[in-house]
Design brief:
454 residues, alpha/beta, 6-stranded parallel β-sheet, 13 helices, globular, disordered N terminus
């Protein structure tokens, strides 16, 4: 979360929640010109390439084995060796730019690299008219999210962010129950996660270590400022480092906040306020330490959303690092809250979701509730297969970038607020500026290492 140079990118609405029409609108809508009639769909089997295959990319590819896996790219061939062996006919690369230049027959690209390279790899593929499936969070910075949103609006491509719950049952139930007026108008939401499950709150960079022979460290760094290698960063703990990841909020917000963002049509917040765990200077226990390297051990972020038509303003509070919202009085004694979840506080009741469960509370309320008709079409395949089907039919995928970009932007505004704790930042989404704190606006943007650009 270092200061970034300014780079401007162009910007981008019971029953008011009427039933099926409004519910469906919450999931779409891409303008009709985005997926044009002149685009030729892939053949019966797509030719798929993947960038970043040693981690989450492997799981994505397993869901895409109905297709031709034609090219694999990873900067560490030892870490990704099992995946390479699993698809022996796929061409192998370390540099995604070389892969995109040489593999002319690719139909779609899976991007499952660390967060700091999501945007550059994704946009490079889109510039070559490749359909793209990119892991969440869509980008590391707010301005990158806006850039991919803009590209998705102008390109005739099928895009999908890898927040699998967006294709699942729970999000559809939540929308249908809220549309039905089960808990009345919602003005307050609480969202939490058990993350981080990786180190955070580290004040200093570790000492340099020799780079493993199998790893291309410079390619792994990509657009991030140069630093010496240490095995603390790889293969997973980069999530806690500000130059590479987005912390607990960035990792899980695109899953958890997504449910509220869709169900309540939240759009962009008008105000963001953060607080976080603090650390003391190891050389002066009376002085707070300044941490410019990693995200805090725990954070609490409040997003304030304005009224949307007849929908009331909403305050959404995020908790991580072991923090949770106060236990709702409606929850029965002895019943635990999920490790990661959401509370929708309505004028007439409370809805709780998490750990593969969605219920009205207390349970007596749930049992007395006359369940509404299922009005939202269900996706009967995996999130990855939804993308593949939409590529073949030139339809809009579940979590397309025109939706996922603003969701990611909203989540990442919380990370900006963590750099200015205890200050209420007023956000103008059209200009991508904090109107009452100009210096905070610098954190919205990005400054790439020489030789790298979006």
């Amino acid at each position: 979360m270092k200061s970034r140079k300014n780079q401007s990118v162009d910007g981008l609405d019971r029953r008011t929640f009427v039933k099926s029409a409004a519910a469906a609108a919450a999931f779409t809508i891409v303008p009709s010109h985005v997926l044009g009639k002149d685009k030729t769909p892939p053949s019966d089997k797509m030719n798929i390439a993947a960038v970043g295959v040693g981690g989450m990319g492997e799981s994505n590819l397993e869901e895409m084995e109905t297709e031709n896996i034609v090219a694999l790219c990873d900067v560490d061939w030892e870490y990704s060796a099992e995946v390479f062996e699993k698809y022996p006919d796929a061409a192998r690369y370390k540099d995604y730019r070389e892969m995109l230049d040489k593999e002319k027959d690719i139909d779609g690209v899976v991007v499952a690299t660390p967060d700091h390279t999501h945007a550059i790899v994704t946009l490079a593929a889109m510039d070559l008219d490749k359909h793209v499936y990119t892991q969440k969070p869509l980008t590391r910075t707010v301005s990158e999210a806006r850039a991919l949103t803009k590209a998705a609006k102008t390109k005739q491509l099928v895009t999908q962010m890898g927040n699998q719950a967006h294709s699942g049952e729970h999000i559809r139930l939540i929308i249908e129950w809220i549309n039905d007026g089960a808990i009345g108008p919602v003005r307050e939401v609480h969202a939490w996660t058990n993350r981080p499950v990786w180190p955070q709150g580290i004040l200093k960079r570790p000492e340099p270590m020799p780079v493993p022979d199998t790893l291309s460290w410079d390619l792994w760094l990509g657009p991030a400022p140069f630093r010496e290698y240490n095995d603390i960063y790889l293969p997973f703990n980069w999530r806690g480092w500000q130059d590479f990841g987005c912390g607990a909020l960035g990792d899980m917000g695109c899953h958890v906040i997504d449910l509220a963002h869709t169900a309540l049509r939240l759009g962009y917040p008008e105000r963001v306020t953060a607080s976080k765990t603090t650390q003391m200077d190891p050389d002066d226990r009376w002085k707070k330490a300044e941490n410019t390297e990693t995200f805090p051990h725990g954070s609490l972020v409040t997003f304030e959303f304005p009224q949307r038509g007849e929908l009331p303003p909403v305050t959404l509070t995020w908790y991580d690092g072991g923090l949770q919202p106060p236990r709702p009085q409606e929850l029965e004694d002895g019943r635990e809250m999920p490790d990661t979840g959401l509370l929708f506080i309505g004028d007439k009741g409370v809805l709780m979701t998490g750990d593969e469960m969605t219920r009205l509370i207390p349970e007596t309320f749930m049992r007395s509730y006359d369940l509404p008709e299922k009005t939202i079409p269900r996706i009967e395949v995996s999130h990855e297969q939804n993308w593949i089907q939409c590529c073949k039919e030139l339809k809009t995928a579940s979590s397309h970038f025109v939706y996922a970009g603003p969701l990611t932007e909203t989540v990442l505004l919380g990370n900006v607020a963590l750099a200015f704790p205890y200050e209420s930042l007023e956000y103008d989404w059209k200009s991508m500026q904090f109107t009452n704190k100009p210096e905070a606006s610098e954190w919205i943007n990005h400054d790439y290492r020489e030789g790298w650009s979006l």
